[in-house]
Specification:
- The protein is globular, with a radius of gyration of 21 Å.
- It has a 5-stranded parallel β-sheet, with helices on both faces. A 5-stranded parallel β-sheet has the order 12-11-10-13-14, covered by helices on one side. The chain has a 4-stranded parallel β-sheet with strand order 2-1-3-4.
- The chain is 40% helix and 14% strand.
- It is an alpha/beta fold.
- It folds into 3 domains: 116 residues, 3-Layer(aba) Sandwich (Rossmann fold); 105 residues, Rossmann fold (3-Layer(aba) Sandwich); 111 residues, 3-Layer(aba) Sandwich (Rossmann fold), CATH 3.40.50.
Length: 386
């Protein structure tokens, strides 16, 4: 019963991460499952749903189709829909039922691509992993198959990778990061994948350097690095001092071609009992910003999967824990915690708590309270907790 949860929520599923990453790119995404998943995704995890259009569908898999393995129905439905709506690409994402029946999603995608004439991706999502895995795979697929290999590098051009509402909502953080880059002499040519078109992402090879602002962008950054030789800077601009370090790292990496983790030198005290829970890149960035501007040490708990491409993001003083029981043990002596409000019930008595909502964890409940991370008043934030 290690994975049982009685006090906290679960993160948005991997299939929803695929939908979020591809939402604005003009493609068509099909979640292969019975009816229901699309409603959950659009209601709780997708703040863009009511303000902009995207071709996200459910295959409406029936019990008999699952038992008999009738893949022709979903293939035919996808091909017919592509002919009517003319998306730029198509994708099929798995869910628990196709996982249990051994559905060959890659074969389905290959058949759809052959019949429709447009690129079709298959994502082996299964509903058992978090959005981090799904969004990471989706952005990597775009980097692998949809980028233009014939582009020429441009001075001061930069890509922003790892931008989805699941990590940043519509709080203004992503446009603010792009604005900060422009104000400091950089040219953000694409944001993966909020506020940019598929045509923008195709030009990613023009960048001198890539800025990864959340873990969902790291796999795509590695693929772009292998293809175009683009160095990677990791960090979310939070607070004036850390933002300055990120800008300096971008300039250095553009010049020497080396990767940099902007918060790497901000090492916390090993005995610190103040913690930040959540996605590793944004959490480590916040911890570094608080140390640099407020002189307060925080350790980070990455509550998501330990993807191999994120190796080195956490410091030796940080932790990796996702299950309720292990989190309670890890935080048993915590004195101060920054986390989504849904983590509060498992914290020890007397622990001071600073709520920082995370859309991928609590959905729309505290959406209006999610701040623009680039404009946080960090000293005031520290004083506000109870």
């Amino acid at each position: 019963m290690k994975q049982a949860r009685t006090g906290i929520s679960t993160y948005s599923a991997d299939a929803f991460g695929v939908c979020s990453a591809l939402y604005e790119l003009g493609g068509m995404v099909v979640m292969h499952d019975a009816s229901g998943c699309n409603s959950t995704y659009s209601t709780h995890d997708e703040p863009r749903w009511y303000g902009s259009r995207s071709l996200i569908f459910i295959s409406a898999l029936t019990e008999m189709e699952a038992i008999m393995g009738d893949d022709e129905k979903v293939i035919g439905d996808m091909v017919d829909t592509i002919a009517q709506l003319r998306p730029k690409f198509a994708a099929i994402a798995g869910t628990p039922i196709p996982m249990m029946t051994g559905c060959d999603l890659r074969a389905i995608a290959a058949e759809v691509e052959a019949r429709s004439g447009i690129p079709c991706f298959a994502f082996g999502t299964n509903g058992m992993r978090s959005y981090l895995c799904g969004a990471s795979e989706a952005l990597a697929a775009i980097a692998d198959r949809m980028t233009d290999r014939s582009v020429t590098k441009r001075k001061n051009a930069v890509n922003i990778l790892g931008a989805t509402p699941l990590d940043f909502s519509l709080s203004g953080t992503v446009p603010s990061i792009a604005a900060i880059l422009r104000e400091n002499g950089f040219d953000p040519i694409s944001t993966w994948a909020m506020g940019s078109s598929l045509e923008d992402l195709r030009r990613a090879g023009e960048a001198e350097v890539n800025l990864v602002i959340s873990g969902t962008g790291m796999k795509a950054a590695r693929l772009l690095q292998a293809r175009f030789g683009t160095p990677i800077v990791v960090g979310t601009p939070i607070g004036t001092t850390l933002t300055g370090r990120i800008l300096d790292a971008l300039r250095l990496s553009a010049a020497d071609g080396l990767d940099r983790i902007a918060f790497e030198s901000c090492v916390q005290a090993s005995a610190c009992e103040a913690w930040i829970l959540g996605e590793p890149v944004t959490s480590r960035s916040l911890a570094a910003a608080l140390r640099l501007e407020c002189g307060v040490d925080f350790r980070t708990v990455s509550t998501l999967e330990a993807l191999p491409e994120l190796s080195g993001v956490l410091s030796p003083q940080d932790a990796q824990a996702s299950e309720e029981e292990e989190l309670q043990q890890l935080l048993s002596s915590a004195r101060l915690v920054i986390a989504d409000p849904m983590y509060r019930p498992i914290l020890p008595a007397g622990c001071r708590f600073l709520p920082l909502p995370h859309e991928a964890f609590s959905g729309r409940i505290w959406r209006k309270r999610i701040p623009d991370l680039t404009k946080m008043d960090l000293p005031a934030f520290l004083k506000a907790g109870r």
